UniProtKB/TrEMBL annotation:
The keyword Signal does not apply. Belongs to the ROK (NagC/XylR) family. The keyword Transferase applies. This is Putative NBD/HSP70 family sugar kinase/DNA-binding XRE family transcriptional regulator. It comes from Niveibacterium umoris. One of its GO terms (biological process) is regulation of DNA-templated transcription. One of its GO terms (molecular function) is kinase activity. Keywords: DNA-binding, Kinase, Transferase.
Amino acid sequence: MPITGDQTLLKQINRMAIVRRVRQQSGLSRADIAKETGLTKSTVSLLAQELIDEGWLVEHAIQITGALGRRPTPLAIDGGRLAMVGAELGVDRIHVVGLSLSGEIVFKTEQDLQGSGPTEVLGQLARLLIDGVAQVRASGRSVFGVGVGLPGAVDEDAGVLKVAPNLGWRNVDVARPLRAAFDAAGLDALPICMQNEADVAALGEYEFGSAPVPDPLVYLSLGIGVGAGIVVNDRLFVGAAGFAGEVGHSILQIAGARCSCGREGCAEAYIGLRAIARQSASPGDPPRDLDALAAGVAQGELLAVRAAQQAGHYLGVLMQNLWTAFDPGRFVLGGPTCELGAPLLDAAKETIDAYALAAGLPAPEVRVSRYGRRAVAAGAAAMVLHKLLRPV
């Protein structure tokens, strides 16, 4: 679609093109950027100076080239002056982080949910986010946006959480109460964006994962529920109604174990934390929480290790199915279930490797999330940057 008539938008497109190029290759000179973006040298020089003044870019030591004339000054991303704040609204806990432009966590906090209804929980979320913004600002950084990862299908434009089965919520307006709280706190100029938890975590890995970051990328969120965030052609793949990635309710076994959604054989019924906890408990014993389950695995308890390995096998099957559907260059595994460690992760890798060997194909890369249990909160912050870098 041609873009004409809006000089402000055109300028922002050019500014972010410069930032994206420097993020891809640190140390480029202004002349290098002009050559690679197609912008004029004068335009790059003007916009680069603005970006330096605002905290996006920083000049490094002048390169020694041996050539006559003015030496080029390399540019890099400035990780010390700007930040985004992100939050995960989980099933039982809220995580909030501040993230620098270089992807480093500069602030973090977490708190158990202090209620179950939308009014109480969203009020708590707003308070933690507002405090997070204040804490990051107190460290000397400017905050240019806030993101939120939500545990269910999201209508991003309306700011509505359409359905969150593990919270028992349907059609909850998240944007309105958050916006009202931010406006009351004097943060009316600060943009707020939100999306499904696995989707934002995928953006966190896409923006700040180990280079080179492949496209497509599939992030698997492993916790009480199981979800996927999928980045294809530099964009989130969310589907027609925002339900793409609900892979926890794809069927892994016909007439299998009953899932919380009422169907039988869903991935969540084999890979979800509740299912693993049930499998690890002795007859008559109550299921253990994550910390106890992880401790049992670490100590080599037979039932706990077997439960983690079985879940890992089913996780490998799920990855195989997603591999055939999306052909990703990388799977990233994140969420609290990953804390079960090698028995789960090795079993998953061995399973997908076996499918790859049988097909005579190289297996896709499988990594654990850079941000661990804070992957969703960090991804929500990264979503703010992801959107800003792509003005159209």
